[in-house]
Design goal:
CATH topology of the largest domain: Heat Shock Protein 90
Mean pLDDT: 85
Low-confidence stretches: 376-410
Shape: flat
Radius of gyration: 32 Å
Number of strands: 20
Structural class: alpha+beta
Strand order of the largest sheet: 10-9-13-14-16-15
Number of domains: 4
Helix content: 25-40%
Number of helices: 18
């Protein structure tokens, strides 16, 4: 026998142990055993008869609950078992709320206390009425945008979509009496952060963990935040590599866009907005990290999250609105879709981490694809004060001219490009692998120099990849 989530040992009784009883009552119940050492050895209770009478009265007077106190004997030692049932309503100890988690007791404060009190009342954070929020605080454009998306998805009756804004909010269960709920401010508010601090998304590009090159912060209603974030990821932050099939140019991103979209939607819908902390997206060349201050459902493990599971949204009203707008499904398949998209894209499944006061997903690039992307000379980048963006066609021509001049200056018999040209003149059918062997370079190094020579218009490859030949143009 050992201590666990529903059993605690104490050698002697102290009134402060009412906090432990409070913690059991607020969690799943449990047994506080008096007269047993931390090692599990019975040491006995002095004056057990008096404590049998005093403890139930103290629990009743201080905590307002009833417990059973039983006298047991073990090795001729008197032990007291205080059996605490789980209570459906919150139990406080002198204004403090304690909770049993694992084999420890903790005092609930801040956002954790808010979540606990709401859960005990059968409520969710997004369903709490928000005094001061009125229809005038909602954006007509956001409401109209929802109507368009919902009509397209077919998940809202046409009659509701054609009705007034008030009727639409009522159909989404965003009203209670004369008040609008918190979810309304997030979904349709002109300034959601006026009512919900931290309701935004931060995104940054990092070279290393301590080298942030540029960043953006996205504000507005949640639908707009999702759209703007996806657009920024696509156009500004994510790198693509280019390959050709015949004359067809094919761009491929290192990370599956659909998986990132699903992960972003999960973060927005399941975030703990009481935390006041924005969702954070860190983009690197080799990985994308999405973190949000959310929590797994109670008693869930990462294994359960990764397996097939029912839908269990942290914010049901937000989830319902995104479902009706056609962004997500209602079957809890978000994680399954992320894993599927990663498999199809040829990258490993994302890493899940719940140890940093939230949920963090890390998408990792395939090493071979990453090498292709970073070594592909046709994929040219220009760095500006605020971004690294794909250059325009005009800038591409300018960069090609610069590359031609640079390559022409460098080509001598003593440089690597010069040695490559000499070998290609001797044997035009030489392969990359053969060049790497003869020059003592890596395959990626040879590929880099060949691409540079091709970009400068010095050489070109004719015929199929395996059986073709190189032509020297200059």
């Amino acid at each position: 026998m050992s201590e666990h989530q529903q059993r605690e040992w104490k050698a002697v009784w102290r009134d402060e142990y009412l906090k432990w009883i409070c913690g059991f009552a607020n969690a799943e119940g449990g047994v506080l055993e008096i007269g047993r050492s931390d090692a599990g050895e019975p040491v006995g209770v002095v004056d057990a008869a008096r404590l049998l009478e005093e403890i139930p009265n103290k629990v009743r007077d201080v905590l307002g609950i009833m417990v059973d106190v039983n006298l047991r004997k073990e090795a001729d030692k008197a032990l007291l078992e205080i059996v605490v049932p789980a209570y459906p309503s919150p139990v406080s100890y002198k204004g403090e709320y304690h909770y049993r988690s694992g084999s420890t007791k903790q005092e609930l404060k801040g956002a954790a206390l808010s979540r606990f009190l709401l859960r005990k009342q059968g409520l969710h954070w997004d369903g709490v009425p928000l005094p001061g929020l009125t229809l005038d605080d909602c954006q007509p454009a956001a409401l109209q945008g929802f109507r368009i998306r919902a009509a397209r998805s077919g998940r809202v009756d046409d009659a509701v979509l054609e009705d007034s804004d008030t009727a639409l909010l009522a159909s989404l269960q965003l009203e209670e009496g004369n008040y609008l709920k918190r979810a309304t401010a997030l979904l349709f508010g002109t300034q959601p952060e006026r009512f919900v601090p931290g309701a935004s998304i931060k995104i940054g590009f990092f070279v290393t963990d301590d080298d942030l090159r540029y960043q953006d912060q996205i504000h507005g209603d949640l639908f707009s935040q999702v759209e703007k974030t996806l657009e920024l990821l696509h156009s500004k932050y994510l790198k693509a590599y280019i390959r050709y099939e015949g004359i067809q140019r094919i761009e491929r991103y290192l990370f599956p866009l659909q998986a990132l979209r699903e992960a972003l939607l999960n973060a927005v819908i399941h975030k703990d907005y009481a935390s006041g902390i924005p969702i954070q997206i860190s983009v690197y060349d080799h990985q994308v990290v999405i973190w949000n201050p959310g929590h797994l459902p109670e008693h869930w493990t990462q294994q359960q999250l990764l397996a097939k599971h029912p839908s269990h949204p942290f914010n049901p009203l937000l989830a319902s609105a995104f479902f009706r707008a056609g962004y997500v499904e209602s079957w809890g398949r978000g994680i399954e879709k992320i894993l599927s998209e990663c498999r199809k894209h040829g990258i490993p499944p994302p890493l899940f981490d719940t140890s940093l006061s939230g949920l963090m997903l890390t998408f990792r690039a395939d090493p071979a694809q990453l090498a292709d992307a970073l070594g592909e000379e046709r994929w040219i980048l220009r760095e500006t004060p605020t971004a690294i963006r794909l250059i325009t066609q005009e800038a591409t021509q300018e960069a090609t001219q610069e590359a031609t001049q640079e390559a022409t200056q460098e080509i001598s018999s003593e440089t690597v490009p010069g040695k490559i040209l000499a070998l290609l003149r001797q044997q035009p059918t030489t392969t990359r692998r053969e060049l790497a062997t003869q020059l003592g370079l890596s395959a990626d190094g040879i590929k880099y120099h060949l691409n540079k020579l091709r970009a400068a218009g010095v050489i070109r490859h004719v015929g199929p990849t395996k059986n073709g030949r190189w032509e020297i143009l200059k």
